[in-house]
Every structure is written in C-alpha cells, then in structure tokens.
Amino acid sequence: MQVTKLPKFHGVAPALVTPMFQDRSIDWKALSALINHVSQGGVDYLVVQGTTGESATTTSDEKKKISETIKASNAYQLPIVYGSGGNDTV
Question: How many Å apart are CA 82 and CA 13, to the nearest integer?
C-alpha cells in the first residue's frame, strides 16, 4: 500500500457563510462577491460549506452549484477546503 502525504494547512482561512435571501434561497451574486472580497484580503485558503456555510441545510443541487460558483469566482486560485455535511439521507 502506498501512503500519500497530504499537505499541511497553515495560515489564514476564513470560514465563509453562504449568503441567503429572506426566503432561504441562495444569493449567488453575493456569494461570488464574498469570494472575491476575501480572496483579495491576503488569505491563504478558503473554508466553504462548513457549519458556518449552511452545509447541513443546503440540498445536493445547491452544494454542487455552490462549488461551481466558488471555483468560477476564485480568481486568485486559492486552495479550498469544502465541507460535505448534511442532515438528510438523500
């Protein structure tokens, strides 16, 4: 068996929220703006869709679109730590 050494994370990494409207739908424009804003602040990587990012309450389709939006908005090509938790079995 081959052992792969994983990179060690160090530095500053904000745990990002998932911006939502009052009706709990995701504000995609605000999410893109948030990624661009924090990326310009000198952070080392991004933490998305953790408990701060509503991972437990977003659907699988929303999680996929969040991932796509973050990749498209990540102009600085920062590493991304992506949560995958949820409260359902679907």
Answer: 12
